[in-house]
Amino acid sequence: MMMPVVDPVVREKQLQQELLLIQQQQQIQKQLLIAEFQKQHENLTRQHQAQLQEHIKLQQELLAIKQQQELLEKEQKLEQQRQEQEVERHRREQQLPALRGKDRGRERAVASTEVKQKLQEFLLSKSATKDTPTNGKNHSVSRHPKLWY
Fold first, then answer.
1. Residue 148: its pLDDT value, please?
2. Residue 6 carries which DSSP code?
3. SS3 (DSSP) at 40
4. What are the tens digits of pLDDT across the range 129-149?
5. CA angle 31, 33, 38 (to 5 degrees)
6. pLDDT in tens, 74-103
7. CA 6 to the chain's CA centroid
8. Coil, strand or helix: which one is 99?
């Protein structure tokens, strides 16, 4: 079994053709890989954009809910303050007649004290006029039990 002898020039040409064929196949594979890479890159970019949009949407919804909750809390606080003011106003309205009554009672007490003082002055002056001798008789001894002894 002998190997046929090939002319080196023919062999060189044959090797160059094989090399060229391999290079062409590599170039085609490279282009296919680049195309696949670009396709996957575009898909990932679209997915990323969709995720970003979803994230932005969720953040906006969360912000809207937070603002709505803050507004609701403000409204509840204002309503509570309004109710407290209403209760306080009602309490004052309830106390006002009682306070007015107390003031009137004090006024009556002051007037009553004045009346008592005038009455006492009147009685003392009346008593003083009775204690003075009338018709030359002194009845003051009979009126004061301490003086009986």
1. 47
2. -
3. helix
4. 876 665 555 555 555 555 544
5. 95
6. 999 999 999 999 999 999 888 877 666 665
7. 97
8. helix
Cβ proximity of 131 and 140 under 8 Å:
yes
| pLDDT tens digit sequence for 1-46 | 566 777 999 999 999 999 999 999 999 999 999 999 999 999 999 9
Q: What is the model's pTM? A: 0.44
Quote the tokens at residue 138: 């002194």
- Tell me the β-bridge partners of 51: none
End-to-end Cα separation, the chain, in angstroms:
184
Tell me what the pLDDT averaged over the chain comes to: 85
- Which of these, 47, 28, 46, lies nearest to 36 by C-alpha position? 28
d(CA 84, CA 90): 10
Q: Who's near 140: CB < 8 A, 6+ residues apart? A: 131, 133, 147
CA atoms within 13 A on the CB side of 109: 6
Q: Supply the DSSP symbol for 3.
A: P
Gyration radius (Cα) of the chain, Å:
61
Contact between 143 and 131 (Cβ < 8 Å): yes
Q: Residue holding tokens 């006492």?
A: 120
